[in-house]
Every structure is written in structure tokens, then in C-alpha cells.
Amino acid sequence: xxxxxxxxxxxxxxxxxxxxxxxxxxxxxxxxxxxxxxxxxxxxxxxxxxxxxxxxxxxxxxxxxxxxxxxxxxxxxxxxxxxxxxxxxxxxxxxxxxx
Length: 99
Description:
single chain, mainly alpha, Arc Repressor Mutant, subunit A, 2 domains, elongated
């Protein structure tokens, strides 16, 4: 479940960087909860082709996050909203900026 949420968050950030076919495959599998076989039947391709496409999409999303760290920074900034002391917030922001 945690992985499902993580990849949906990455998709929200980086989805526009994927091809239309990759977006469709991700949407069908992760958001419509279709099986690989169902997607393959709908697209008239093999199940292994769909599985490979999904794997490639996840690799791309991981690559984008590894290079850009937008999701990581968003999580860090969300944590800042929970801090009440301004000095602690400033220290955390400086840490985020220096990474």
C-alpha cells in the first residue's frame, strides 16, 4: 500500500514527463486497478509487454525523483508545517536548501 501511494505521488509530480502510452499504462494499473491481463486485453498487446511498460514507468519515476528530489522536498516542507518554533523552522529550511 505504501508503494502504491508513493508511486501515485511521483506520478502526480512527474507524470507529464512520461509518454502518452506510459501515462495510460500507469493510470490503468495504479489508478483504475486493472490487472496486467486486463490492460493487455484492452490494448491488444501481450501481458509481458504491459508488465515491461509498467516496470519502465516505475524506473523513470524513480530516476526523475533521484535527480530532482521534488517529492522528498515536498515531504520535508510538509513536516515544517508541523513545527511551531520559528527558529526550528529556519534551521530545517537551511538543511533542506543545503542538500
